[in-house]
Amino acid sequence: MAGTGSVQHLSALLDLFTDRQWIVTIDEVMAKLELPRSTAYRTVGALSRAGFLDRVSDEGYSLGPRILQLYRLLQVGDPLLQVARPVCMALAATAPRGSAVLLCRSYFDGVMCVHQEMAPGPQEAVSYQVGRPMPLYRGSSSKTVLAALDRPRLTKLYDRQSDDIRRAGFGESREAFLANVKAIQRAGYCVARGEVDKGRIGISSPFADKGIGLTGCISLVLSEASSTEEDISRAIVQVAAAAHDTMQRLAVWKPATRSSDIDSPARPDATNRATASGSPSRRARSTS
Amino acid sequence: MAGTGSVQHLSALLDLFTDRQWIVTIDEVMAKLELPRSTAYRTVGALSRAGFLDRVSDEGYSLGPRILQLYRLLQVGDPLLQVARPVCMALAATAPRGSAVLLCRSYFDGVMCVHQEMAPGPQEAVSYQVGRPMPLYRGSSSKTVLAALDRPRLTKLYDRQSDDIRRAGFGESREAFLANVKAIQRAGYCVARGEVDKGRIGISSPFADKGIGLTGCISLVLSEASSTEEDISRAIVQVAAAAHDTMQRLAVWKPATRSSDIDSPARPDATNRATASGSPSRRARSTS
DNA sequence: TTTTAAATCCCAAATAATGGGATTATAGCA
DNA sequence: TGCTATAATCCCATTATTTGGGATTTAAAA
Hints:
disordered C terminus; 2 domains; homodimer; alpha+beta; 10 helices; Beta-Lactamase; two-stranded antiparallel sheet; six-stranded antiparallel beta sheet; DNA-binding; 44% helix; Arc Repressor Mutant, subunit A
């Protein structure tokens, strides 16, 4: 009914949210996106009505419920997650105490962890978190996924990011870079010590599915202090088996087998949302 | 650089994804949004470049990595989650085996679970899932949150959804509705049996924070078969205590105390993304 | 009540999205 | 290798939409 704004604004606005900033004010939107006040209000209002933003009383806007909703749809729909979750759980069950199992996949020029399973025992945080974009050439997960990309992508990637790759010590020249990649491809796994978190070892093995055009890996993150070389050798075998298992399950995955939702609960439609308090409330207290 | 599309399209397009449909084709976009082919391609392309959609080889598009990324930002940023997660964990630790702890909050005309913590023991799925929009008047969580809303919102809500409310048996008239609400307000908790999942009991207690304008509840979901009345009584006390605890912690929450992220990993910017394979690849195989 | 600042509303000007069709790229096939 | 069918992209005049400056309304504080 009402006018809205462009996807560019949407994207730029959501980019304002970072690890450090979880709340965004109208003034920040105006400043960062170089928008006049009225447009800023309108854009923010449209995004609120669509559920991407949520008003935090006087202070500004935070990310909204729509994010959670879409996240759930991704979780229940993505065949990779459907297929690989049980594999990860099984791996976590037999993994050393305190370790973590990661399911990662490539996205654009990066890798992202899409699922994490903690082994029993005291848990230490892994900074390779679900939803956190990571570069393609640091950490065992990244390197493994990188090595699974096809040749044209690799050369393109090197051209684009040669500086960063050099700085990360993953190849001084294109040849060195491709050699490193090839080594991982040959081995079928990758072990990295302390590249992401100090004192932790990452062990990864790749999988790929041409059917849904997907490249990823399964990783096990161990504590460096409490792991013997034997632990690591055993872990490599387990991780490789898990990745292999995942690939096979993906290949035979039937989209028909979908979880029927018991009965579809209320999904407030656009009309309802518009009438609700989606638009900014009056009067923000100026704390200054 | 390139043209994009409107937020309405974005929202409408993302609405095509449901529990049953996790993949969307260009033809569906054309049909459902009544868009010509060129515009459909452009919109989908823009959303892919922004990371909201992800191409699934020949088959179409699925939800993209941006969703996961935003989900994470919501998780690490939201003070409610920061504050209530440990409370939920503590509650789950002492809760009966197989039960689940839910953290819910109100959004528009619905309630949404924003966090779930499983008690140890064999776990049965709860259909009150994280990110799933639920109506405001079915289940203990919903009713509890509903009861915590202010009067004007309640009357507005009834006007808008009186039919649904009647059908759910939560009030034949406005007076009956308000009486039901008041009863929950007085008690300070709500118990519901089998309203969401057959054979399960929900026990909820509300919290609110005027500071960030937030209304929600903490719930415990028990199995009806293995719970005595005494279990339930004890659970009510525990849940109420947890909710109270949450409210107090929220009140003293200092936004200054933020988790400093170790070192910001690569976040592919718009330019990089545009050069990557964000745009649709050629030739989708027609299975027909 | 008055004051102050935020949020919304309004509308002409300007910009950016639109969409029909032509064009190019792709995969399958002979 | 060339040919065909179809998907994906490109082009550009038309048109509908956003835009933004300022006036107006609303709400909280003084």
